[in-house]
Amino acid sequence: MPEEKEKTMVRGERRTAQRIKRVLADITPQHLEQLTKQARALTGDYEMVEVQGGASMEVIRARLSNLQQRHSTLRDKLTNAYPPHRDFDENMESEFRAGETERVFLEGESWNDDVITELQRRIWENGSTTRGEEDQDIQEKPELDEKPRESQSVTYQLHRKMIRGVSGGQISVRFDTGFGDEKYESYYCVLTSSSATDKLHVTEHSIPFFLPLRELEKAHLTTSPKVFIDYIGDILQAYVSRREQVREIKETKGESIGELYHSLSFSLIELMLKEPDYQVGVSLAYYNLKSELPTQSSVIAWSRPAELRPQTATKRQATTVHSSAFHLPKAEAFLLTIPLPKALDELLADLRATIGSPQSPAVIEATSLLPAETAL
Questions:
Q1: Which stretches are tagged as biased composition: Basic and acidic residues (predicted)?
Q2: Helical H segments across 113-224, by residue range
Q3: Is the residue at 76 inside a domain?
Q4: Which of 240, 271, 296 marks a domain boundary?
Q5: Edge-to-edge strands, sheet with 170-179
Q6: Is 135 inside a domain boundary?
């Protein structure tokens, strides 16, 4: 038995050695040259360009800038999910405008799951009546076809949401969004069931693909349509608010923003602010998609290299520049409670106060960070 184990080990070592030889045989000068050509083709560098020192850095910067522009363009296309749904949205908007005879406003306890249950029952009853009337001579009794349509065209309205039913067991929901005093786009979702008592499910929608519609459908729609509709409305409104906050800081503080990154849902935002003597990195995380304010923030400032500082800086300013990075816990705290455009104004004021303070960098670095709060 020991001899058989030893033979097995020897055969395994031989196979390993053979594999290594095959791998090494592939790494030939010709193979390396082929890999180099492939790498140049991927980067767009088809010609051998000899660059030295600063020239090579310029080439790298140019390529990096081009890559950033392409990334920004692609991100904008993915973020703007409205055009692909334009036909669907136009049809839904026409449906909400046409034939409306009654509007019921819901608030407080009047908005509950019973509203959806009753609407679903009425839709199926009216739908069956309509289908029965289609077999009759409509020209002889046109009034029979009008009454069900009137009852179907009742629209329920609550805060930034409108709900109405159509034949075939379908319930259409419109989610309106806004920022400040301005109204923005509306999103639509169609709920369908196979009978008056069957569970609802989503058949069509214009909700952006990066929001968790299907997860919420599985978690809430079968148990509580009200919770599902409210949740979708909240995350859509929060998404638009975060998006418009970023747009506003681009317009108002574009010259001070060195870099800006955000995820498609704006649930992660990172930006770099440029001050005469400092750079400030801000990182915001929105773990609660229903929140318009971040649930976690981080603000780190550090001094700019001397050669990059403006020549107009005074001698006093130069002496107050700290040599290491430090957190701004006060700024991290109010970023959790103030919308981003206003919070950045407070942040810069706090930074200038910190620069002029007599505290040493060690004291500032040791300042304890406030715990991240979870938004409701």
A1: 138-150
A2: 113-133, 146-152, 213-216
A3: no
A4: 240
A5: 102-105, 154-158, 161-166, 170-179, 182-192, 201-205
A6: yes
Residue 364 has which token pair?
């500032």
CA distances from 24 to 21, 34, 36, 127 (A): 5, 16, 17, 74
Following DSSP, what letter does each residue of 125-148 receive, concatenated? HHHHHHHHHTTS-TTT-GGGGHHH
The pLDDT tens digits for 110-163 are: 999 999 999 988 888 876 544 444 444 434 444 434 444 444 568 899 989 999
205's CB contacts (< 8 A; 6+ apart) are 187, 188, 189, 190, 213
Number of domains in the chain: 2
198, 301: one domain: no
- Is residue 300 a part of any domain in this protein? yes
According to DSSP, the residues that pair with 272 across neighbouring strands are: 259, 281
Closest Cα to residue 328, out of 347, 356, 342?
347
Residues in the chain: 376
Domain that holds residue 311: 253-365
Say whether both 201 and 327 belong to one domain.
Answer: no
At residue 194, what are phi and psi to the nearest 5 degrees? -90, -10
Nearest Cα residue to 81 out of 240, 266, 207: 207
Task: Name the pLDDT band for 367 (thresholds 50, 70, 90).
Answer: very low
Q: Are 216 and 268 in the same domain?
A: no
Q: Which residue matches tokens 């919308």?
A: 339
Q: Is 292 within 8 Å of 180 (Cβ atoms)?
A: no
Q: What pTM value is reported for the model?
A: 0.67
